[in-house]
TrEMBL record:
Tagged with keyword Repeat: no
Pfam families: zf-HC2 (PF13490)
Keywords: Membrane, Transmembrane, Transmembrane helix
Organism: Schlesneria paludicola
Tagged with keyword Isomerase: no
Domain Putative zinc-finger: start-end pairs: 6-40
Protein name: Zf-HC2 domain-containing protein
Length: 477
C-alpha cells in the first residue's frame, strides 16, 4: 500500500524533471528517491515518457500538458459518475494516467502521418516489355580539321562539338551537323557508309540511310550492301533535289545557297530523281539543272576539280592509302591534257609528303618510253616534296635512262642532304662519264648517315651497302 509520503513525492516528479522545485523541496524528493525503489521506478517511467513524446511527436511533456489536463478532467468526471463496481484508482497514479491519456490524445492529434502507400508495379509478362531508349545512333565522326556544330534536333540550339570528343562523338537520329569555315569532317554511318563534308556544310540525319543536305558540298560512299538517299533540303531547291547512291557507289554533291544543285557520280551508279524519269549516272557523269532544265554530261576533269577539297581527308589513310594512290594517278593522267594542267600539278604538290610515295611508285613502275612526260612531271614534284626516307630510292633513280629524271633525283638529294657530291643537276643529265663517280659517293653517304634517317611508312629500309643499280629493284612495290 502506497504511503502518503510516496504519493506526495510522485505528485512532484513532473516538477522535478522540469526543474520547477525549490532547493529544499528538490532535496527532500531526491532523498526519498534514494531510499524508495518504487518511486525511483515511477521517476524512470516518467523520464521515458518524456523522451517518447519528444522523439515521436516532436514536442516535450510540458508542451502536451494542456492536452493532458483536459484528458484528466474528462477522465476524473467519468470516475465521479462511475458505478460503484469500478475500483477507485489511487491518487498517486493520477499523474501517470493523465500523462498517458495526454500522450494518447496528442499522438492522435499531432503524431506522424502514416506513410503513403507505396505503388507496386506488377511485372510485365515476358515478350510484352517495352524498354524506353534514346535516339538511335546513325553516324560517328571519324575526323575533323576544324570546329563543328551539332544539335540533337531541329528545334535545339547549335552547340560546338568539344575537340576532345570528336574522335568518339556520335550523331543520333534527327540530329544535325554543321562545319564552320576551313573545317572539313568525315563520318562513318552505323551501316558502313562514309560521308565527307566540305567547309560551311550542313546536313540533317533523319535515318541511317537518308541524309538531308541543307547546304554546302559533300561526298558519299554507300555501304557495300545497301543504298543511301540524299535530299537537298533548302527552300527553293532546283529540279535536281534527290539522288541515291546505289550499294558501294560514290557521289559528290554541291547544294549552293542559290543556283542549281549539282550531282557527280564518282564511282558505281548514282540515280537522280528528275522531272519525268530518274537519271542513272555512271562514274564521271554530272547532272545539274539550270533554269528548270536538267542536263547530264560526262566530264572527268570536273570530277577532279570538284573533289579537290577532300585531299586533306584522303591523307588519313597514310602514305600507302589506296585512295590517295588513285587520286595521284588520276591527276597525273590529266596533266598535259587539259588547259588547267597547272592546277592539277599544284594539287599533287599540295599533297606534300603524302603524295610522294604514289609519285615515286609511278616513276619506278612506268615505262620511260611510253610515260616519258608524266614521269618527268612526277620527278619534278618529287624534287620538291620527297621526304628523307626516300634517299635510297632517289640514289637508285640517279641511274635512270631519262636524263630529266636523273636531274630531278639529284635536285631532291641536294635539298634533303645539303650535299651534291661535287656534281650539279646538269652534270647528272650529261653522259655517264660525268656522273658515274657520283654513284659511289652517294652510296658512301648512305652508309654513313642512313641509320639516322627516318624509316619509310612501310617500315623497311634498303641495306646501305647495296649497289645503286640494285636499289631500284629492292624498293619496287
Amino acid at each position: 500500500m502506497m504511503s502518503n509520503t510516496c504519493e506526495q513525492i510522485r505528485e512532484r516528479l513532473g516538477a522535478l524533471l522540469d526543474g520547477e522545485l525549490d532547493a529544499a523541496s528538490q532535496t527532500a524528493v531526491e532523498a526519498h528517491l534514494s531510499e524508495c525503489s518504487e518511486c525511483r521506478a515511477a521517476r524512470d517511467a516518467l523520464e521515458s515518457l518524456d523522451r517518447t513524446l519528444g522523439e515521436t511527436l516532436g514536442m516535450t511533456r510540458r508542451h502536451s500538458a494542456a492536452v493532458a489536463e483536459r484528458a484528466v478532467e474528462r477522465w476524473q468526471a467519468g470516475l465521479a459518475t462511475a458505478p460503484s463496481r469500478f475500483i477507485p484508482i489511487r491518487s498517486g497514479l493520477r499523474y501517470f494516467a493523465a500523462a498517458a491519456a495526454g500522450f494518447l490524445l496528442a499522438a492522435v492529434l499531432f503524431g506522424p502521418r502514416p506513410r503513403p502507400q507505396e505503388i507496386v508495379t506488377e511485372p510485365v509478362p515476358a515478350g510484352e516489355a517495352q524498354v524506353a531508349t534514346g535516339p538511335e545512333t546513325v553516324a560517328t565522326i571519324i575526323q575533323a580539321t576544324g570546329p563543328l556544330l551539332f544539335r540533337p534536333d531541329k528545334n535545339a540550339p547549335w552547340e560546338p562539338v568539344p575537340q576532345d570528343r570528336i574522335a568518339t562523338f556520335t550523331c543520333p537520329t534527327d540530329g544535325s551537323l554543321r562545319t564552320e569555315a576551313a573545317a572539313l569532317c568525315e563520318l562513318s554511318t552505323t551501316d558502313g557508309g562514309q560521308i565527307r563534308l566540305n567547309e560551311k556544310t550542313e546536313i540533317a540525319l533523319p535515318a541511317v540511310d537518308r541524309i538531308d543536305v541543307v547546304g554546302g558540298e559533300l561526298w558519299c560512299q554507300a555501304p557495300p550492301d545497301k543504298p543511301m538517299q540524299f535530299t537537298a533540303a533548302r527552300a527553293g531547291a532546283s529540279a535536281v533535289s534527290t539522288w541515291t547512291c546505289l550499294a558501294g557507289s560514290e557521289s559528290l554533291a554541291a547544294v549552293p545557297e542559290e543556283g542549281a544543285v549539282r550531282i557527280l557520280a564518282a564511282a558505281g551508279v548514282v540515280q537522280v530523281a528528275t522531272p519525268g524519269a530518274p537519271r542513272s549516272l555512271s562514274a564521271g557523269m554530272v547532272c545539274s539543272a539550270a533554269d528548270g532544265e536538267v542536263t547530264v554530261r560526262t566530264s572527268a576533269d570536273e570530277l577532279l576539280y570538284a573533289s579537290r577539297w577532300m585531299q586533306p581527308l584522303m591523307t588519313r589513310g597514310g602514305h600507302d592509302s589506296p585512295e590517295l594512290a588513285r587520286r595521284v594517278d588520276a591527276l597525273l593522267a590529266r596533266i598535259g591534257r587539259t588547259k588547267v594542267s597547272f592546277l592539277l600539278e599544284q594539287d599533287l604538290r599540295n599533297l606534300g609528303e603524302y603524295g610522294a610515295l604514289p609519285l615515286l611508285r609511278f616513276v619506278q613502275s612506268s615505262s620511260p618510253e611510253q610515260d616519258r612526260d608524266r614521269r618527268q612531271t612526277a620527278m619534278r614534284i618529287l624534287a620538291d616534296t620527297a621526304p628523307i626516307w626516300m634517299v635510297p630510292d632517289l640514289i637508285a633513280l640517279l641511274e635512270d635512262d631519262d636524263s630529266q629524271v636523273r636531274g630531278s633525283a639529284a635536285a631532291a638529294l641536294a635539298r634533303l642532304t645539303r650535299e651534291t657530291q661535287g656534281l650539279t643537276p646538269e652534270d647528272w643529265q650529261a653522259d655517264r662519264v660525268r656522273w658515274s663517280a657520283g654513284i659511289a659517293a652517294w652510296q658512301d653517304w648512305w652508309t654513313r648517315h642512313g641509320a639516322s634517317c627516318t624509316l619509310p611508312p612501310r617500315g623497311d629500309r634498303a641495306p646501305p651497302t647495296m649497289p645503286a643499280s640494285e636499289l631500284l629493284k629492292a624498293r619496287q612495290p
